[in-house]
Structure prediction request, 757 residues.
Amino acid sequence: MEELKKESAANSEYLLEVNNLVKWFPIKSTFIKQTIGNVKAVDGVSFKIRRGETMGLVGESGCGKSTCGRTILRLLEKTSGEVRLDGVDVFALTKEELRKMRPRMQIVFQDPYSSLSPRLPIGEIIGEAVREHRIVPPEEYDQYITRVMEVCGLPEYYKERYPHEFSGGQRQRICIARALALSPEFIVCDEPVSALDVSIQAQIINLLKKLQKDFSLTYLFISHDLSVVEHISDTVGVMYLGNMVEYAETEKIFSNPLNPYTKALFSAIPIPDPAAKINRIILEGSIPSPANPPSGCKFHTRCRECMEVCKYASPEWLEVEEGHFCACHLYDSQEAKLRAQMEMEKAKAAETKAATVSGDITKQ
Amino acid sequence: MAEKKKTSYISGKESRRITRFNRRVTRKLEKERANANKDKALYTTRMKDPNNVVEFDNVCTYFFTDVGVVKAVDGISFEVPVGKTVGVVGESGCGKSVTSLSLMQLLQRPSGQIVGGEIRFNLGDGTAYNIVNTPNAIMEKIRGNQISMIFQEPMTALNPVFRIGEQINEVLELHNPEMTKEQMKERTLNMLELVGIANKEGVYEMYPHELSGGMRQRICIAIALACSPQLIIADEPTTALDVTIQAQILDLLENLKEKLNSSIMLITHDLGVVAGMADYVVVMYAGRVVEKGTTEDIFHHPAHPYTIGLMQSKPVVGKKVEELYNIPGNVPNPVEMPNYCYFRDRCEKRCEDCNGNYPPEIRISDTHVVSCYRYKDEGKILGYPKSVNVEEL
Prediction:
């Protein structure tokens, strides 16, 4: 632990570092519970978040955004990789150490209708963890809860009420208050506004932004609503089928998307202006199954600019411009091109070999 | 605290009174409905304008619930022209879905009742049905045949125990009894091809769980379009889908509309979707139409403070703002609607007049109608939305 802390002081610019995080869910056969495959929900994702900044994580449903968020908080165990929160390796902690770490990292879930216990009054929902972790001395407990509720725009008399008495927007405020009560440094917001109406969405987004300013919070903002992500984030990562395909600062990525998938995704955003005619790139088909992803670049089945090499070699994660990362063969450097070429030839050779072998078998 | 509690508290006596009242009113309404069904003259009328598929004329749909009468739709009027797309926008609970259910006569009776107004559905020969009084036997012929509906959740809209092919065939079988099995299959396969399913023979034999959300929504669209209806009601068709799939589905709907020359009533809360798809927009708030006009009118010259607020509260890609606008306050309690403008308490532009009755509909240009006192000197007053006094029922 001591060593880890020293290290954290050295690179304190980043609060969260995720290195090559992998999370596979095994598929068991029904009969003898043998593992017959893996759903590769998160398959090698790396990024860093600076203190007090928001990173948006976008992608279609099923691309592993939520799994990524949950694995970072160790709500799910990783398969491999590394997550460092303020220099502390989250997966190296023992149970007791993790418990101490919990108040520093919190989550706001997507669905405010199912993430609150229907049997607890609001005061108890927000206060339970505060008491458990002894955030404040017992005599200040009541005041503290009131203050947290006030910050989140909930009047004091709500304390005695139960979740079913509230609308979606109010419930989401309660969820945010619950996370905030532990004075965390890092909050994962897992689609916090998708279940809400437009005008309520604006309230919650404004609240999240205000809290970030007042308490210098760091957010990982998971969403599929790109306009919301653009509004709230400083940096944006785009995921496709378990991989990060592009990462850059918000302005950069929205003004100059590089990856064909990002381009298609951004062009699909409906613009509330009838005069705006955009050249919409319509992607064919839907996202392939993460249990059996396509070979090479996972996006090649739907990509417009698919080349021969894309079918065999998976693209490398390269810094195309300063601070703008992208995984696509279109932007390969010279060496990366050579490596991809070699990988392709290897894969092709293996394929022909397999074909001849199977041919032999059928002949026999 | 005490004050807050009062609003949601109902005494036993009050509760019993409400129940008695509801029973009396719903019974009476059901009886009237049964009588109206017998005579054809009672449910056939004429269209105001033969170029419309559907005209809503002061429709009032109320729900008689245990806590009181909920005026889900209270005197709304708008029309859907032939071959056009009308977008109905509003927050959840503003009555947009109830409007479409009233048109399909799919309301949960007896507690949900259309208590006033007319919904005229064009039959094409100059006459029209008044959907409010149309008997069930005729409605069954209209539903799925002339008016059909695409529901919000493709995950739950399909029956999990029947194959895709059978589910599309069912619609054809009901409305075209003269069709043979082979013709039906051919038509179903055509429909599957039309909605952009490549592996049509394979999908014909599949069950819904084998398909993804976007594919299921395509199936729902295929079912809705199987009989080439004159009007398609799309009730939040893309809310449960991803942006990329949403773009596919909207593109598909647009193309199909051209091919079949149908009208679409697009119900959604996503302003972006409406801007891209609709020709006319109707903005609803708390059971009433607050503004209607062409897409151009609504998006480039929004007039009602609610519409303006709604536009500003949505972040737009490429337009950086420091803080999003949010409309203060909440939607009023649907059981006890105020008698002044429903939006007054949340409105930042309220004036003296707003303390009076609910504002009338004011025509501010040929196509643009708004319900707000701020425009009373600029346009022609068309009339007030007619509400039904429940005590008189």
